[in-house]
Amino acid sequence: MSTTAVTTPSRLRIPRWAAPAGITLLIAVAYLVFRGTGTLPHDKEAPQFLALTDLREWIDDHRNSNPVFLFFLNYIRIFVGSVYTAFLSVLTALGWPGLIGVMGALAWLAGGWRIALVAVAGVASFGVLGLWESSVETLALVAAAVLLSLAIGVPLGVWAGLSSRVRGAVTPVLDVMQIMPTFAYLAPLVLFFHIGAPAGTIATMIYSIPPAIRITALAIEQVSPTAVEASTSLGATRRQTLFKVYLPLARSTMALAVNQTIMMALSMVVIANLISAPGLGGDIIRGLSRAQVGIMLPAGIAIVVMAVTLDRMMMALAREGAPPSGGGAAGAQRPERRGKDGGSQRPSRPTQWGNKHSGVSLAGAAVLAVAGIVLSRVLPAEWPANWTVNFVAQVNDAVRWAELTWYDVTTFIKDTTTALLLNPLEGLLTSAPWWLVAVAALLLAWRVSGLRPALVALGCLLAIALLGIWEHAMQTLTTVAVAVLVTLVIGLLLGVAAARSPRFSAVQRPVLDAAQTMPAFVYLLPALALFETTRFTAIFASVIYAVPPVVRLVEDGIRAVPPTVVEAAASAGSTSGQLLWKVQLPMARRAILLAANQGIVMTLAMVVVGGLVGAGALGYDVVVGFSQRTDFGMGLVAGVATVLLGVMLDRVTQGADRRPASRTGASH
Amino acid sequence: MGDSPDSAAIDVNGLWKIFGPKAQKVLDSDDKHLEPTALREKTGCTAAVRDVSFAVRPGEVFVVMGLSGSGKSTLVRCLTRLIEPSAGEVRIDGEDIGRASPAQLREIRRHRVSMVFQHFGLLPHRRVIDNVAYGLEVQGAAKAARHERAGEILSLVGLDGYADAYPDQLSGGMQQRVGLARALAVDPKVMLFDEPFSALDPLIRRDMQAEVIRLHREVGKTMVFITHDLSEALKLGERIAIMRAGSIVQLGTPEELVGAPADDYVADFVRDVPRSHVLTLRWICRPPEAGEPLDGPALPATTVIKDAIGLMSSSSRPVRVMDGEELAGVVDRVDMLSFLSGEDTSQSTGQDTAQSTGQDTGQDTGGARDARASA
What we know:
The complex is a heterodimer.
Chain A: H1 2-7, H2 18-34, H3 47-62, H4 67-111, H5 113-128, H6 132-162, H7 164-179, H8 186-193, H9 197-221, H10 225-233, H11 238-271, H12 281-289, H13 293-321, H14 335-345, H15 349-352, H16 359-378, H17 392-405, H18 407-431, H19 434-449, H20 451-467, H21 470-500, H22 502-517, H23 524-531, H24 535-559, H25 563-571, H26 576-587, H27 589-609, H28 617-627, H29 632-667
Helix pairs in contact in A: 3-29, 4-5, 4-6, 4-9, 4-13, 4-16, 5-13, 6-7, 6-9, 6-11, 7-9, 8-9, 9-11, 10-11, 11-13, 12-13, 13-17, 13-23, 18-21, 19-20, 19-29, 20-29, 21-22, 21-24, 21-27, 22-24, 23-24, 24-27, 25-26, 27-29, 28-29
Chain B: E1 10-19, H1 23-28, H2 36-43, E2 46-56, E3 61-65, H3 72-79, E4 87-92, E5 95-96, H4 102-111, E6 113-116, H5 128-132, H6 134-139, H7 143-156, H8 172-185, E7 190-194, H9 202-219, E8 222-227, H10 230-236, E9 239-244, E10 247-252, H11 254-259, H12 264-270, H13 275-278, E11 298-300, H14 305-314, E12 319-323, E13 326-331, H15 333-342, H16 347-351, H17 365-374
Parallel strand pairs in B: 3-8, 3-9, 6-7, 7-8, 11-12
Antiparallel strand pairs in B: 1-2, 1-4, 4-5, 9-10, 12-13
């Protein structure tokens, strides 16, 4: 913007595109002139990496003598570890019939016999899949992480909801926590908390606390201010108002917070296996690293089943707690879903409010629980081997068949994309001088988001260069860029289609709902089955991972265009194409830009995880860092670099969303 | 008024509320007297209540009326410090609210002053009876006792049989009855109403106004009633304060407001009010002329003109207007007809008897009235 002002005399009328075009040209020329100079090729033995590897060695040597560890960090580790162990021993002591019965009973209380059926079938399926023990470990890990996350997140969320000052302090921290790719903080956690279940639990908590805080704060904020004022005007103390007004009214939205926390925890638990957290993640990571879909599919199914079961239970609970008026319904992270599920049932709610459990459901739950516990004394302690289904070989065969049959198609897609997009872009980014890339990023961010985000983006790139991981970061950036491009194209097409055709939307919504319940790495499965271990696998996985939210944001954005405006445009004789291009898309601009931002952050997270399946670059460095002690430093740096990359991409694009808002805000 | 602070139920003196980052600084400077827009531009602050003073007599229905943004809702919240006033003094039953400790303030809110809200502020997760008993609950009353009391209040407001319903099962009018019952349940001395009926349909609003009048008659609480609806103000208020941009521009009985608006703003407000429905005979009576027969029917001076029309038309003699035992003046058919046709002609006669209480507000209403009279 201001470069325009500098380069053009004010009286001369120069087309608006001239300045950007000129700068682009200038950068292109600079690239041609300086190509090949100023590159920062990857060096596995970079001093930065070695120093960090040495640091870990030092810490591991002094873990039990340094006071910081001895009196602080180790206690946290022991405490978290004991919470996990407590859950694990309770769940194990229940035995498999007991656990099935108790989960069924809880589900019955939460949402009636249908949900109970889902829960019984879901928990039983862990055994059928032959994964009983690791499922129980995962469940215990999730339970520990969720309990601790809520113990920290809910009070903080309540506080943030009550005080705008606290909210202002907490929000930026949460922002960073949420754009941080999950891989990134595993390595530092290893430094502080070693490896194993406690470190895995803590890693999971870091991932699952933000929604707990955010949604709780939102729930509290949504409480009707008049109800609060009425309470105060009758002389209630702050405490009375909190417990008698705020918390009851926020309850149903807070159930969503719990749900979201569980979902986040479930998707993180798997990745936590990289730092030796127990559970289903082991099979999945093993399957991923050996490119054996057959090994990871059962574990993947088990995780998805666990997610669906817990989600159904929590959503039922949220509906149960919904105030009859639906006062706190809006917002949260999955409003559409609530609206759809909750809307049809709510009218019957008021009569049940208060005495929420009828005798039947209490009795049913009790019978289920008791039956399970009694059976666990009678039946063998282990899940019977002949009740399991083993389909590893069949799946591997099927995958091989798919690979062979579709070889031509998949290879064509892969090769075309690689040749036309990936390779040229990667060549460009890695052969350009690092300072030229940094300057280009600075100018782009400046143009899109303004000066301050641009400086942050520049800072991130400089830090990446200093950390000595420039080349890999550029390779990852390439993959992300291509994935984002594909995601946006598909997301826009589907979103527009859904917004224009209610029937299409009705078909698509349940698919999107299901997709958003699934833990992230599940998407690697089909990608791996189709494309083996290549860069393209990660792109494919991140596209299917990031498309659903993009579609949803675009659809909602277009639907949010006021019907009167659409009507006015239609009455002026617009064709439906004109309506779309001249009215709906421009007015949905904010939502679309937000979708782009969201898509970028999600894609980055997935591309890094894709390091497990051949995406190489930063993700691979991170994985290697965990498996080889000598490369720990590089892994840690790669993790930090993904964060920096994430912050940079977020800053470059977020202004696109925010700036128009501030502009219209100023004009009012 | 001649009320000493001790005899007033609520006594407000020089109350200010300034919103904004530098409220105290504005208050200490002369900026506080700036026009609202000028003040906002210069300091970024908004003066919602500006130097307001009034006194409410025990048992009185005192209406504060103004358009949205005039500061009336802020004013009523300052009375119990739901919004902290920036300056000035509020006394309830002689007790200085501004100096009350948080615990004392809670006691006042629990036992002496309760409030009814525009959007009801009911708790959707509680049954009607528990909503009504909420005030008693926070006081620490036992469940049986508070339910008994809440039950009594529910029948008082005509909600027998709805104790176990949830608020959202009730209509808007019934919900506000619950709000009313909740405020009544703690047996306060003073009740504050913040536009309680403006969210209701016109017909229901009329019912609820009648309800408030009936309750006032039955329980005799001191009431401060905020509204933006002039007809509501005239119907309920024994005295009305009209607010504009944070200040009281006129304070008086309905008759005084309609008969002698303090300025053009108030005059504009009351222009569409049928004067014969508000003004009393006192406003149109004149001293008897020499030789005029004084044996016509007698009516008290407080009779609303509209109600005197029937008698007047059946009597050929001038009606004697009595102020107690004394003759205040007479009114004949010509006076009546000219009043009804012109609606503006009898101003000057009414002027002398107007007992404007404008002095209370510190406003120069007298000057405004003189200007009008000469115009």
